[in-house]
Amino acid sequence: MIMRAYLIILALCVSGGATTRAHPEFQKFVASHSGRPINCAMCHTHADGPEGTAPGQVGRLTSAEMEMLGHARAALEPGGNVNSPILNGFGNHIINSIGKKKFMELRTVPAELANLLPADSDLDRDGIPDVREYLDGTHPLKRHDGSPGLLFRHNFRENLPQILLTLAATICGLYALRHLLHGFANATRAHDEDSELS
Fold it and tell me: Closest Cα to residue 190, out of 59, 182, 148, 79?
């Protein structure tokens, strides 16, 4: 098992540094398109990308994780059930959706990634498709990171029954309070009139 891990590491080193680097073309595109500063954490487990010895980077991987990484890098076609230890859920979703080969081809046209990802995918279930979050520079895995207007609309729709119940309870409460105050006012007026007569 250890020998196999060493062979994978050797193969990665021989194949060149480009296999271990993040792909700044996508990061630069998203930053310029969205106007938001973003880092490698949009797709990688570590904000500084895959190189290094911090958790989630290649230098810290166990032999089992190195094997997973080798399997992920060999997934040239879509649907390879990729679970790379240096990629987060969105990064793995990209490779599973379009394959490593197509992803590498897109480095010269990173805007095209948005056209190839599934339009209905919403990994964090915040109502904003992952494609839109990629273009907006918001995080596809963070439920509260997104366009404020879109998040508000989604949360409003999702919580509409509770909002309507609260509104109905408030209206009923105000109606009851109004009648209670009228009752007190009538009782006070009747008491005052009785006092004047006696």
Answer: 182
Torsion sign (Cα): 157, 160, 163, 167? positive
Q: Which of 99, 151, 96, 97 is nearest to 124 (CA)?
A: 151
Angstrom distance (rounded) from CA 196 to CA 198: 6
Give the largest Cα separation in the chain, rounded.
110
Convert the pLDDT of each residue in 9-27 to its tens digit: 444 443 333 344 568 999 9
Nearest to 93 by CA among 134, 56, 59, 147: 134
Total-model pTM: 0.72
Q: Give CA–CA dist 121/114, Å, rounded.
A: 11
The full 3-state SS of 96-140, as one line of letters, equals HHHHHHHHHHHHHCHHHHHHHCCCCCCCCCCCCCHHHHHHHCCCC
